[in-house]
Specification:
Helix content: over 70%
Structural class: mainly alpha
Low-confidence stretches: none
Shape: elongated
Mean pLDDT: 86
Number of helices: 4
Largest sheet: none
Length: about 110
């Protein structure tokens, strides 16, 4: 499971730096959204890597964050800005798959406290 969780951690770090790397406007909704979700994904991944006994709830929060990443371009009206939309959809889908794999793994191999 740790290999999969490290993918989420790396994707979270990418979300934090992607506004700068892809040239988003510094005060835009997509910049704030990506940085906030990046920080949340990094924190969730670090929690799961620690193998805390209650990681399952954190994992499902990570899945909800990935669903929001996919919905954000449409909810925050930046779907026409292709780099931001493409980045959020790609990272959202990958994070969703990784989160579901993590969740499945946590169900099969529960963490012993």
């Amino acid at each position: 499971m740790n290999r999969v969780t490290w993918i989420s951690l790396i994707l979270g770090i990418w979300l934090i730096v992607s506004p700068l790397a892809l040239g988003y406007a510094p005060t835009s909704a997509q910049t704030a959204n990506d940085i906030l979700l990046g920080v949340l994904l990094v924190l969730c991944s670090a929690w799961i890597v620690r193998r805390a006994p209650d990681s399952s709830g954190v994992n499902w929060f990570e899945v909800l964050c990935s669903i929001w990443l996919c919905a954000a371009p449409f909810a925050l009206h930046y779907q026409r800005l292709s780099p931001a939309m493409t980045n959020d959809l790609a990272i959202g889908i990958i994070t969703l798959v990784v989160g579901l794999v993590e969740g499945w793994t946590l169900l099969i191999e529960p963490v012993k406290s």
